[in-house]
Amino acid sequence: MVFLTNILKYNSTAGHSLKQYLRNGFKDSLRIYVKAGAGGNGYPKFGGVGGQGGNVIAVGREHITLEDICKLHKSRRFIAKNGTHSTHNFILGPPGEHLRFDVPLGVTIYTDEGKKLGEINKEDDTVIIAKGGPGGHPKNGFHGIKGQTYSVKLELKLIADVGLVGFPNAGKSTLLKAISHAKPKIASYPFTTIRPNIGIITYGDYRQISVADLPGLIEGAHANKGMGHEFLRHVERTQLLLIMADINGFQLGVQYAHRTCLDTVVLLNKELELYNPDLLNKPKLMVVNKMDTVPDRKHFYEIREQILNLPDLLQNYPEEIRPETPFVFDDIVAISAKESADDVNLLKNKIRHLLDVYGEVKKERELQEKAELVSNIKRNLAERGPLVV
Ligand SMILES: Nc1nc2c(ncn2[C@@H]2O[C@H](COP(=O)(O)OP(=O)(O)OP(=O)(O)O)[C@@H](O)[C@H]2O)c(=O)[nH]1
Ligand SMILES: [Mg+2]
């Protein structure tokens, strides 16, 4: 079964059982119908203006799922109230009530035509999905205008601490199985994983770190080759990218070129950059897998050297696959996900260490930014001089 969830949120929610939540499966997109209210008619005799139609507004809320949206609203149709007509008692017609509904954090809202209407990333973030029509007034002949109507898609980006990215067959799901209790499908053919899987690493002191295993990416993924590209949205919110490569490289089939381990790293670099260059700023751990298939570690040391010299070696690649910003890794490790529990344990500890270090850096940076903000406000106030009433 495929599980995908807003893990961090549920880890910290006392009221929800994470296991139960995971067992119920997961939805990562939802289509709904929204209709904003029409404006009320004006009142020509007295120059009365009709009330503005209500908007349909999405509001960010922690601890809810996409499924909850329709359950709470009891429908897939979200319709705001019309503005009231102007009358001789109410020359200015009262506006129609907005329809607000809660959505999980990490949601992006698109129209059917693919136009992005907005994103919800924090508690209380709002997006006006459909705007109410203006009320009738002299310039529109006192006729209230209809509100916007859309069929929209809400797409949820997964929140996990770590995102596993790699070519097909690199061993991502094998690693997920080895570090968590997840039971992803594992097979020797490419594209075994067709939807993201989540696993939770639990450490001896009960610290938990969530890991998302994504479908494999191949070159040209950005142009819809393979299936992994659309799932990259799920790593946008992870804190650490774990880039995984098979030490032997990859070959999609006999009619395709063989890609060496370094080639796959370069191609992943390019695909991530094409998807969203910001992904390259995330902390990154390079994992070279299937060490049990090579006679000694010499091969790994060579590959590590190449990866460290990536900026220079990129000159050897054709321009169309050469990323502008080469990967810079926090660490490069060699493992056998399938055969070595020691390797897997070492990797688990590295993941924790990196997340801790970056967590501290992030905290310090936020404090620094806050302090700078306060001192800027103080300086501005001082420059303005005392308040004269
Ligand atoms: N020898 C060896 N085989 C491995 C290792 N890790 C994974 N494999 C094998 O490689 C194949 C692919 O493993 P998966 O874990 O399904 O690979 P994946 O990266 O999840 O592949 P996709 O889901 O297609 O993207 C399977 O036959 C695994 O048994 C390893 O460390 N050593
Ligand atoms: Mg897999």
TrEMBL record:
Q: Which SUPFAM superfamilies match?
A: Obg GTP-binding protein N-terminal domain, P-loop containing nucleoside triphosphate hydrolases
State the Gene Ontology terms under molecular function.
GTP binding; GTPase activity
Question: Which InterPro entries does its entry note?
Answer: G_OBG, GTP-bd, GTP1_OBG_dom, GTP1_OBG_dom_sf, OBG_GTPase, P-loop_NTPase
One GO BP = ribosome biogenesis
**Domain OBG-type G span(s) in chain numbering:** 160-356
One short Pfam name that applies is: GTP1_OBG
Q: One cellular component GO annotation, for this chain's record?
A: mitochondrion
Q: Which UniProt keywords apply?
A: GTP-binding, Nucleotide-binding
User: Which residue spans adopt a coiled-coil conformation according to this UniProt entry?
Assistant: none
From the Swiss-Prot or TrEMBL record, give the protein name: GTP-binding protein 10 homolog
Organism name: Pyrocoelia pectoralis
